[in-house]
């Protein structure tokens, strides 16, 4: 790697140190900053360079209105109807245990007991105001595109998170933000063919907040890679 004419050790550092932030300061983020992030992320690769990504950026007054809309939907127990979901009906190993560890680890750090249903609901509710972040990004693509384009969208999604770090900004990838796709399409005046894939909270991370001390683990390379030589 060191012989390569272009060597970017900071890329590794960014990938390894990025983690989800679930509390943000009130400092605003402006269009220019987000445009710079997207201006980097647009260089993500995609199948036959289709560039399927589309993104709605919501800040300022409009973000506050979006918070109200999503919080109301959550408070009224509106059934979620995601158009892309990683959740399984029947969880199986090793995914079941990993998911469990992620949930329990988070609640442990913020000291919410398993039995404390009210506190858990209150924490879940924060998802729907993007954990107080000043910006929400909604990632979508044309509904008639194939699943291969979702792969491309994922690369773009990660690029946005990494490019945000270069702006001194933090993120939380958030499927919760697309729980109510029709509400979003109406609110953002998007066409029916816009398929909502995921959301993201973006802002200045609150480094004092206990919730942001939470770290997830990763499997070792040997657990997921097979080498053939
Ligand atoms: C597509 C996607 C959707 C996610 N949705 C949520 C969400 O709705 N709420 C949340 O708190 N975290 C969400 N996460 C964050 C994951 O829980 C987190 O990425 C994972 O636990 C690894 O932790 P890390 O991001 O801190 O490394 C999501 C992550 C991804 C990639």
Molecular structure report:
The chain is of the alpha+beta class and 229 residues long. The chain has one domain: NADH Oxidase, CATH 3.40.109. The chain is 41% helix and 13% strand. It has 8 helices and 4 strands, in the order H-H-E-H-H-H-E-H-E-H-E-H. It has a 4-stranded antiparallel sheet with strand order 1-2-4-3, sandwiched between helices. Helix 2 crosses helix 6 (147-166). It starts with 8 loop residues before the first helix and ends in a 5-residue tail after the last helix. Bound molecules: flavin mononucleotide. Residues 19-20, 22, 102, 127, 172-176, 198, 216 line the site of flavin mononucleotide (FMN).
Write the layout of secondary structure elements.
Elements: H1 9-17, H2 31-41, E1 54-59, H3 60-75, H4 95-109, H5 117-126, E2 135-142, H6 147-166, E3 170-174, H7 181-188, E4 194-203, H8 221-224
Antiparallel strand pairs: 1-2, 2-4, 3-4
Helix pairs in contact: 2-6
Flavin mononucleotide is lined by residues 19-20, 22, 102, 127, 172-176, 198, 216.
């Amino acid at each position: 790697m060191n012989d390569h004419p272009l060597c970017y050790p900071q890329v590794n550092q960014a990938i390894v140190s990025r983690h989800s932030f679930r509390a943000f300061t009130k400092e605003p983020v402006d269009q220019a900053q987000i445009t710079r992030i997207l201006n980097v992320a647009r260089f993500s690769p995609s199948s036959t360079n289709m560039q399927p990504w589309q993104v709605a950026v919501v800040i300022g007054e409009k973000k506050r209105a979006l918070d109200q809309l999503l919080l109301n939907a959550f408070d009224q127990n509106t059934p979620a109807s995601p158009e892309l979901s990683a959740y399984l009906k029947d969880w199986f190993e090793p995914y079941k245990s990993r998911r469990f560890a992620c949930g329990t680890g988070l609640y442990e750090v913020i000291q919410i007991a398993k039995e404390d249903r009210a506190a858990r609901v209150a924490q879940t509710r924060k998802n729907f105001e993007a954990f107080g972040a000043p910006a929400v990004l909604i990632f979508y693509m044309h509904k008639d595109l194939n699943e291969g384009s979702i792969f491309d969208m994922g690369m773009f999604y990660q690029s946005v998170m990494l490019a945000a770090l270069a702006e001194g900004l933090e993120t939380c990838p958030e499927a919760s933000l697309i729980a109510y796709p029709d509400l979003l399409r109406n609110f953002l005046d998007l066409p029916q063919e816009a398929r909502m894939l995921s959301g993201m909270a973006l802002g200045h991370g609150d480094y004092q907040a206990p919730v942001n001390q939470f770290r997830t683990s990763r499997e070792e390379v040997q657990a997921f890679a097979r080498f053939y030589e």
